[in-house]
Amino acid sequence: MKKILIINANYYEDISKRLFSSTSKELKKHNIKLKRIDVPGVFEIPFTLRKYIKKFDAFVVIGCVIKGQTPHFELITSSTFDALIRISVDFNKPITNGIITCLNKKQAIERSSIKDNSSKNNKGYEAAKAVINLLKNEPKNS
């Protein structure tokens, strides 16, 4: 059984709660053992990911960054996403990104929505589907 860690940036609790719900629901459908760690914001995700990189088979990161009046949005998203890719490649571990980047809270709500009991428009759901796909496509030991 594969073990996946969900790292949840909890800065916007209402958004991260919906992202986590869709992520965990999809992973549980595939008999995947999962754990969750909450961090204050997306900038703390790479550190946490690196700390647990050898203890899990794959990772799903979720959270939200909303653009404000300063360049903070670009700096945080760029450095975080670069670190995620670097860690994934350096350690050869699947890391899927369910972090919502948007211009306002309305967009964040739309991208974390669960409509008609479906999570298809939810970025957490999409990240869960991606990690499942990556794990299924791993070569089998012969």
Q: How does this model look, in words?
A:
With 142 residues, the chain is of the alpha/beta class. The chain has helices at 13-29, 45-52, 72-91, 105-111, 123-136; strands at residues 3-9, 33-39, 58-66, 95-102. 46% of the residues lie in helices and 22% in strands. It has a 4-stranded parallel beta sheet, with helices on both faces. The longest helix has 20 residues, at 72-91. It starts with a strand and ends in a 6-residue tail after the last helix. The mean pLDDT is 92.
Q: What is the share of helical residues?
A: 40-55%
Cα-to-Cα separation, first versus last residue = 18 Å
What is the residue-mean pLDDT, rounded to a whole number? 92
- With helices defined by DSSP (H or I, 4 residues minimum), what is the helix count? 5
Please count the beta strands (DSSP E, at least 2 residues each). 4
Work out the strand percent: 15-25%
What's the SSE pattern?
A: EHEHEHEHH
Quaternary organisation of the protein chains = single chain
Instruction: Name the CATH architecture.
Output: 3-Layer(aba) Sandwich
Q: Could you name the CATH class?
A: Alpha Beta
Summary tags:
alpha/beta; globular; Rossmann fold; 142 residues
List the helices and strands and how they pair.
Elements: E1 3-9, H1 13-29, E2 33-39, H2 45-52, E3 58-66, H3 72-91, E4 95-102, H4 105-111, H5 123-136
Parallel strand pairs: 1-2, 1-3, 3-4
